[in-house]
């Protein structure tokens, strides 16, 4: 009921009467009043006027189940939210829920992760109060070999979601990092549980730097946040809801064709490595090449100095610009 009341307050430009809310939810006036008091405690400014009702004057950067659910307008992506003030990693929570049969599209969100994860066992910084850590649980009916493409589907959803919210052009550093002004604002980690020919579940974790102003020494040269780049504080729940909308749209295009052909053009429009010289950090030996774009299965197409073309699979590889991170 809390998320629904919030949604009604947000959608209404004028007062909503207490009686209207009582009738809508079939509850007492005291129950409605209690929800309003809870919302005020969480930081919402709600005006209550006798004979008129309630009106929402301001929402702060609240991260909660009710706030996120009040903003999500999708059919299934993020319609159901599991929220933690603190957890080890939202990917871990999503995987545990995946084992227990939790439904497709459930979104796990934390204000802070104590053991945020990056690719290849690396860490992800996700401090309290200013970052987004979220993981969506999916049960796609596609062959397991195709699931890694979902990382690129999410990368496009984040880049486009950020443009929708802030009007800035976020880029994608192949395959899964979102950058603004050549610095990283988001990392994505996909994990899955499969049988030989069947996917039990896939979880896609997304860490977004939203309102951080400083970063630990190890990453301060390569990391940035939406606030640092735009100069404005950004409400995290709005970013989450918008990314979910974009994700649902691109996911449906992806599962229909079981490849990226439907969204490849949009992905390449965001790809910062496109038509650039790159350094491919292959565990078998780093080398330089010229990146052309991606193919329909998400590999990066590069041309080597001798003119041969190669398609590189994301698994173990990172890409850098020749002179820096991008
Ligand atoms: P990269 O090309 O950046 O190495 P990757 O895909 O191999 O990308 P990820 O798994 O996306 O790496 O991210 C893990 C790395 O990101 C960490 O090793 C660290 O260097 C960096 N990192 C950790 N936390 C953050 C953060 N909040 N913002 C930006 N970068 C971070």
From TrEMBL:
Signal peptide span: none
Function recorded in the entry: Acts both as a biotin--[acetyl-CoA-carboxylase] ligase and a repressor.
Classification via HAMAP family: Bifunct_BirA
Keyword line: ATP-binding, Biotin, DNA-binding, Ligase, Nucleotide-binding, Repressor, Transcription, Transcription regulation
Domain of life assignment: Bacteria
Annotated ranges, domain BPL/LPL catalytic: 65-255
Family of this protein: Belongs to the biotin--protein ligase family.
UniProt enzyme class: ligase
NCBIfam families listed in its UniProt record: birA_ligase (TIGR00121)
A UniProt-annotated Pfam family: BPL_LplA_LipB
DNA-binding residues (ranges): 18-37
Catalytic activity: biotin + L-lysyl-[protein] + ATP = N(6)-biotinyl-L-lysyl-[protein] + AMP + diphosphate + H(+)
Descriptive protein name: Bifunctional ligase/repressor BirA
Residue positions binding biotin: 89-91, 113, 184
EC code(s) of this entry: 6.3.4.15
């Amino acid at each position: 009921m809390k998320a629904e009341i919030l949604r009604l307050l947000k959608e209404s430009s004028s007062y909503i009467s207490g009686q209207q809310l009582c009738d809508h939810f079939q509850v007492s006036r005291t129950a409605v009043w209690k929800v309003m008091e809870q919302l005020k405690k969480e930081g919402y400014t709600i005006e209550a006027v006798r004979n008129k009702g309630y009106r929402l004057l301001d929402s702060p950067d609240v991260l909660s189940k009710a706030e996120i659910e009040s903003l999500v307008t999708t059919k299934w992506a993020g319609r159901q939210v599991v929220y933690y003030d603190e957890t080890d990693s939202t990917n871990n929570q999503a995987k545990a829920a995946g084992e227990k049969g939790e439904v497709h599209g459930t979104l796990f969100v934390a204000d802070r992760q104590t053991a945020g994860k990056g690719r290849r066992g690396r860490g992800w910084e996700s401090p309290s109060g200013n970052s987004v850590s979220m993981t969506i649980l999916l049960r796609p009916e596609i062959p397991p070999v195709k699931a890694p493409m979902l990382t690129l589907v999410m990368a496009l959803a984040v880049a486009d979601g950020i443009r929708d919210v802030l009007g800035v052009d976020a880029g994608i550093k192949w395959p899964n990092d979102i950058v603004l002004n050549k610095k990283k604002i988001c990392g994505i980690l996909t994990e899955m549980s499969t049988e030989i020919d069947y996917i039990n579940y896939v979880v896609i974790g997304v860490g977004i730097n939203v309102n951080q102003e400083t970063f630990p020494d190890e990453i301060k040269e390569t990391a940035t946040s939406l606030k640092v780049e735009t100069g404005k504080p950004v409400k995290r729940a709005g970013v989450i809801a918008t990314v979910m909308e974009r994700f649902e749209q691109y996911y449906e295009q992806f599962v229909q064709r079981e490849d990226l052909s439907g969204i490849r053009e949009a992905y390449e429009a965001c790809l910062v490595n496109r038509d650039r010289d790159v350094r491919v950090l292959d565990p078998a030996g780093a080398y330089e090449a010229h990146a052309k774009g991606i193919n329909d299965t998400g590999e990066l197409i590069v041309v080597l100095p001798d003119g041969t073309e190669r398609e590189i699979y994301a698994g173990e590889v990172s890409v850098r610009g020749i002179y820096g991170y991008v």
